[in-house]
């Protein structure tokens, strides 16, 4: 008997010409039955009764296990699949504590206000006497904030508000902090990279302040399935954490299909490269086919404007089939008013809406159940996010469902659709963060010192010797004052407002609508040259604007509303110099290194591209150079191995730059498979003769000051990373290189020169040598403070 997932897949494949199927692989994943556990004996009868009345007859096994651990005083992370009821795992111990002890309080943290609002509604709907749950975020009116501080016993907020609104004013929160029994950290897998590093130090600041008032809260974390969740949660908290991973929730059987859009014959991209049908256009057609079949479906799209365009494309297709069906498709994204989001959620749950194109706004927490199909347009950056999105399909366990992953024109997407095991049978990633990053540590230590003087005993939580080195530098610059009993903040003004925990610090560039003077948003200063340069298309809440002028002196980008049919991509030149080698592996003719580098880049222009990928034109810019001190992984290859010597790549000198350039681009595209990052979080440089190494060298570096842990992960996984890079290039059907393999959307040299075959040859040589045992391993090797002359 054909299951529903297979039937829906056959429907979306109907009409595709024989021999031109975009389907690269499909696989049926089995269903999983529910496994229950009895209600814990310690749980408050009132809490249990309220949960039963809401339809929870008894908890699933992982919910009861996590609740028991938290009740016993252990810090716990529950890392199970989408819709596995992780909220019950923390609601049970928290609500019991609040009901049983009138002085107990709890704090809930989520990465987004929408998720926090959903969880707050879930708690208040139980109607438990004595539970005074309230929001405390940027939307909370000032008058209500006083009530929250004075009376609420479960506060729902986010890391940003904890950082700016609670900890700097902890003396006004004494009642709440003194009774703090539990801290819930929801969707903790989203705290990675620089943001995760800031939040890790924020957790240490929270614990320190709570201890000051006599509280020692238990932390309960909820996460999507990630590799080694105990280690990831422990790194985030700075405390030992027990993981609960045995998912007892039911799961429907699913058919997962991997889909590669076809190459288009009549369009050419940059340097004449072939162009694929866009993932958004393909997703719109698939969504329309699913709606015709009556299947309730979600399509996850990477951007807000992409979600709107996908919904519009599906409606356009449906209007030709049945105009009534066109009205049953909508977009859902951040930036909608709360009442608009609630109405859409109700329409999806009731079946009034059959198809919704969404950003990851529906990935986290929103309770939409029983969907027949999910389409993922472009890899969402991590396997954890992919399975979080895919988990919306068939999540009630009642019927089979379909998941379609549509590849974008990108090396990582190309690799995944041609290597199904990397999607379907590979453990999800571990979260990458680095609380010892000095560019994150310094502002966080400043905030901590402004809250309470830092003592020598408190430094262990903040990195020990790493924190001491940063503090010594801050004292030398008179940012802090050293006294016998600790370090003191010297200014009357608190530093919290100047610390952007979602970026790398520094003054934000403000985006202002020129005609109205309305502030639209802010951009991290490190990204402003690329994203809000003169002529850039800037997206805000699904609306598009064009930048009239970027004023770097005042930190303002003036824009006007416009809906051009093109997008912009910045082009830059880049030099890199090695500051210090941290770790080095020497092989015969190949070295692999990890270390600190200084990257000097300058945005020199931008491309205007149509949605099809076709380049309209190239526009020059005159912007100052920027310098970034960060971490990188790099490998060098000797001239003998690159040349015609036996076992070499057989590359003539003239072909070496293009070959290395191709290998660099593909390596950047594939690193997100091994480190929880996006390709825009990292960068690279390649050169046939680097001044610091004296050999052909390929660098891949973190895009954040001090590094975010991505280069370290690449160094530790160098062989599988480069194997995947080689496979991605070789598997692409294009003849000489395209965006699916070796072209990069952010290449400063306009993707020239690029030698696809040469890139494969270089990687074959490197992997052939690196497979051998390294001859020498050295740590902390001193680097050179010389400037490189390379350009990428």
**Rg on CA atoms, Å:** 27 Å
Query: Strand percentage, roughly?
Result: 15-25%
Helix share bin: 25-40%
Identify the overall geometry. Answer: globular
Treating each run of at least 4 consecutive H or I residues as one helix, how many helices?
A: 25
Largest sheet: number of strands, sense, barrel closure: 7 strands, mixed
Care to count the β-strands? Answer: 30
Distance between the termini: 55 Å
Instruction: Assign the structural class, choosing from mainly alpha, mainly beta, alpha/beta, alpha+beta, or little secondary structure.
Output: alpha/beta
- Low-confidence spans: 773-792
The overall pLDDT average reads 87
What strand line-up does the widest sheet have? 1-9-16-15-12-14-13
Domain Helicase C-terminal: 286-439
InterPro entries: DEAD/DEAH_box_helicase_dom, Helicase_ATP-bd, Helicase_C-like, Helicase_put_actinobac, HRQ1_WHD, MZB, P-loop_NTPase
Keywords: ATP-binding, Helicase, Hydrolase, Nucleotide-binding
Domain Helicase ATP-binding: 67-244
What would you say this structure looks like, in words?
Residues 67-244 form the Helicase ATP-binding domain. One of its GO terms (molecular function) is helicase activity. Residues 286-439 form the Helicase C-terminal domain. Keywords: ATP-binding, Helicase, Hydrolase, Nucleotide-binding. This is DEAD/DEAH box helicase. The chain is α/β, with parallel strands linked by helices. The chain has 25 helices and 30 strands. The protein has a 7-stranded mixed sheet with strand order 1-9-16-15-12-14-13, sandwiched between helices. It is globular. The model is unreliable at 773-792 (pLDDT under 50).
């Amino acid at each position: 008997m054909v299951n529903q997932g297979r039937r829906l897949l056959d429907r979306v494949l109907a009409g595709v010409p024989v021999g031109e199927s975009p389907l690269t692989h499909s696989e049926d994943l089995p269903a999983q039955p529910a496994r229950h556990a009895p209600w814990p004996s310690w749980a408050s009868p009132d809490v249990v009764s309220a949960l039963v009345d809401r339809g929870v007859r008894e908890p699933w096994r992982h919910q009861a296990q996590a609740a028991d651990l938290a009740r016993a005083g252990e810090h716990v992370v529950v890392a199970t699949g989408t819709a596995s009821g992780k909220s019950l795992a923390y609601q049970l111990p928290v609500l019991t504590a609040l009901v049983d002890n009138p002085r107990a309080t709890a704090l809930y943290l989520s990465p987004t206000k929408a998720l926090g609002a959903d969880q707050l509604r879930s708690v208040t709907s139980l109607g438990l006497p004595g539970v005074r749950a309230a929001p405390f975020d940027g939307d909370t009116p000032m008058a209500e904030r006083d009530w929250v501080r004075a009376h609420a016993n479960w506060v729902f907020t986010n890391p940003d508000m904890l950082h700016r609104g609670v900890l700097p004013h902890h003396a006004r929160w004494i009642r709440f902090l003194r009774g703090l029994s539990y801290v819930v950290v929801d969707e903790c897998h989203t705290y990675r990279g620089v943001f995760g590093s800031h939040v890790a130090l924020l957790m240490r600041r929270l614990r320190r302040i709570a201890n000051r008032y006599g509280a020692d809260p238990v932390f309960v974390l909820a996460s999507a399935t990630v590799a080694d969740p105990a280690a990831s949660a422990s790194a985030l908290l700075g405390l030992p954490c027990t993981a609960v991973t045995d998912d007892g929730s039911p799961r429907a059987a699913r058919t997962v299909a991997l889909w590669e859009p076809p190459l288009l014959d009549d369009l050419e991209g940059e340097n004449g490269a072939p162009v694929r049908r866009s993932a958004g256009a393909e997703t719109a057609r698939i969504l329309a086919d699913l709606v015709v079949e009556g299947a309730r479906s979600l399509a996850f799209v990477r951007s807000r404007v992409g979600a709107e365009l996908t919904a519009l494309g599906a409606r356009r297709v449906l209007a030709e089939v049945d105009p009534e069906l066109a009205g049953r498709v909508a977009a859902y994204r951040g930036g909608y008013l709360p009442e608009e989001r609630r109405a859409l959620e109700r329409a999806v749950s009731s079946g009034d809406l059959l198809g919704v194109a969404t950003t990851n706004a529906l990935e986290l927490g929103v309770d939409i159940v029983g969907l027949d199909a999910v389409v993922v347009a472009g890899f969402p950056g991590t396997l954890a996010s992919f399975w979080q999105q895919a988990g919306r399909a068939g999540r009630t366990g009642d019927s089979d469902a379909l998941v379609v992953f549509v590849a974008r024109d990108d090396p990582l997407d190309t690799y995944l659709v041609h290597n199904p095991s990397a999607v379907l049978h590979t453990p999800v990633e571990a979260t990458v963060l680095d609380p010892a990053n000095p560019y994150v540590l310094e502002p966080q230590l400043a905030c901590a010192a402004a809250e309470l003087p830092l003592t020598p005993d408190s430094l262990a939580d903040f990195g020990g010797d790493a924190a001491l080195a940063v503090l010594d530098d801050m004292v030398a610059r008179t940012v802090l004052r050293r006294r016998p009993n600790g370090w003191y903040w010297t200014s009357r003004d608190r530093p919290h407002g100047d610390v952007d925990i979602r970026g790398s610090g520094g003054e934000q560039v403000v985006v202002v609508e020129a005609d109205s003077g309305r502030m639209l948003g802010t951009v991290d200063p490190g990204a402003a040259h690329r994203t809000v340069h003169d002529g850039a298309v800037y997206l805000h809440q699904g609306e598009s604007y064009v930048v009239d002028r970027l004023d770097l002196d005042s930190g303002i980008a003036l824009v006007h509303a416009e809906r051009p049919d093109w997008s912009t991509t910045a082009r830059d030149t880049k030099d890199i110099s090695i500051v210090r080698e941290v770790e080095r592996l020497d092989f015969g003719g190949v070295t692999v290194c990890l270390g600190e580098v200084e990257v000097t880049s300058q945005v020199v222009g931008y491309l205007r591209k149509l949605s099809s990928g076709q380049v309209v034109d190239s526009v020059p810019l005159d912007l100052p150079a920027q310098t970034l001190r960060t971490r990188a992984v790099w490998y060098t290859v000797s001239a003998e191995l690159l040349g015609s010597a036996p076992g070499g790549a057989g590359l003539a000198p003239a072909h070496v730059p293009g070959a290395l350039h191709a290998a660099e681009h593909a390596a950047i595209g594939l690193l997100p498979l091994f480190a929880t990052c996006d390709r825009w979080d990292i960068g690279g440089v390649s050169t046939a003769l680097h001044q610091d190494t004296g050999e052909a060298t390929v660098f891949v570096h973190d895009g954040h000051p001090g590094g975010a842990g991505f280069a370290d992960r690449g160094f530790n996984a160098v062989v599988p990373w480069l194997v995947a890079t080689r496979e991605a290039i070789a598997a692409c059907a294009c003849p000489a290189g395209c965006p699916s393999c070796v072209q990069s959307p952010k290449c400063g040299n306009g993707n020239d020169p690029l030698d696809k075959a040469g890139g494969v040859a270089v990687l074959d040589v490197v992997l052939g040598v690196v497979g051998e045992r390294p001859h020498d391993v050295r740590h902390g090797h001193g680097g050179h403070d010389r400037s490189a002359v390379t350009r990428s």
